[in-house]
């Protein structure tokens, strides 16, 4: 399992200094037909929560 999860989306409530994700768990889904993502562009982080709202 990954020790550190890096994230550059500083508008997320889970974003922490050093581009670290401070969420307790991470949920990533595929938005590619058949759920067989082959590239990062075919996935989405469902853990994202805006800290701006």
TrEMBL record:
InterPro entries: DUF1540 (IPR011437). Residues 5-48 form the DUF1540 domain. This is DUF1540 domain-containing protein. It comes from Paenibacillus chitinolyticus.
